[in-house]
Amino acid sequence: MGKLLEVNNLRTYFQTDSGTATAVDGVDFFVNEGETLGIVGESGCGKSVTSLSIMQLIPKPPGEIVSGEIIFKGQNLLKLEEDEMRKIRGNEIAMIFQEPMTSLNPVFTVGDQIQEAVMLHQNLDKEAARNRAIEMLDLVNIPDPEKRVDEYPHQLSGGMRQRVMIAMGLSCNPSLLIADEPTTALDVTVQAQILELMARLQTEMNMAVILITHDLGVVAEVCDRVVVMYASKVVETGDVRTIFKNPRHPYTLGLINSIPKLGAEVERLEIIEGNVPNPTSFPSGCHFHTRCKYATEKCKNEPEPELIEIEPNHWVRCSELGNF
Length: 324
Description:
- The chain is α/β, with parallel strands linked by helices.
- It has helices at 47-55, 82-88, 100-103, 110-122, 126-139, 145-148, 158-170, 188-205, 216-222, 240-245, 250-257, 297-301; strands at 3-16, 19-32, 36-40, 63-72, 75-76, 93-96, 176-180, 208-213, 225-230, 233-239, 308-311, 314-316.
- The chain has 2 domains: 1-92 and 175-261, P-loop containing nucleotide triphosphate hydrolases (Rossmann fold), CATH 3.40.50.300; 101-173, no CATH class.
- The model has no long low-confidence stretch (mean pLDDT 89).
């Protein structure tokens, strides 16, 4: 199984009235062919900005990809002209956005919006593209696809709109699908259906998936490996079994301990005190030390610790390893 995507030392900054916001600061990870990589962390940690950087959808200004490499199938996407990137975006790399009601155009039918991508990237005529749109709606289990293809987003439920987004993302048979919190706005039953659908389609189409979420329960269910992000940086990464069995960063440990456990007699869930710091003014030393119950003066005063490999394919960014 070869590497499909490699992100090396990615830095994406935004210029704001309060100063430079370091939204993504030196992020490294890779995605193998056919696997599911989960990226988890609280709101504001840099998950979505990382995915938008891969797609090169960062608004300029105020945003800018300052440095790094994004290697996809052997070529650095950051070196491509916009015309070249447009041939990859939506075709070889597709993305499902967080809120389908704001991502879908309200004045076009869902069929028109699927057809647009197919006609652009697959060189199909309008009739063939319409048939492809119907086929994709049927693939994602939307009932009566011949009728739904002519309906507008507001005529569909939240779950069906999310299925339309999946159909649109998969319409060109991408090698990599980026799903940015695809089930956040859905109820638990529909969420389970969407996750099951994505897993089935991934197997059938042999594509890789980057799943961006704040829900570790979802990660445990569907992901092969996981990247934990905090305050613009990767703080821990490894395969899912290792991360859940042996979390070595205090932030990862806090996230796992805050998951409700069936049958556990616990009066209150554990919480991580405080909030993700403002990206324009991160604390000195380890970014997590202001919220970490294991922090020492070393964590506060010394430079941010490097990401080190503590066992095969298990990387952690913490200077107090083994002391908690």
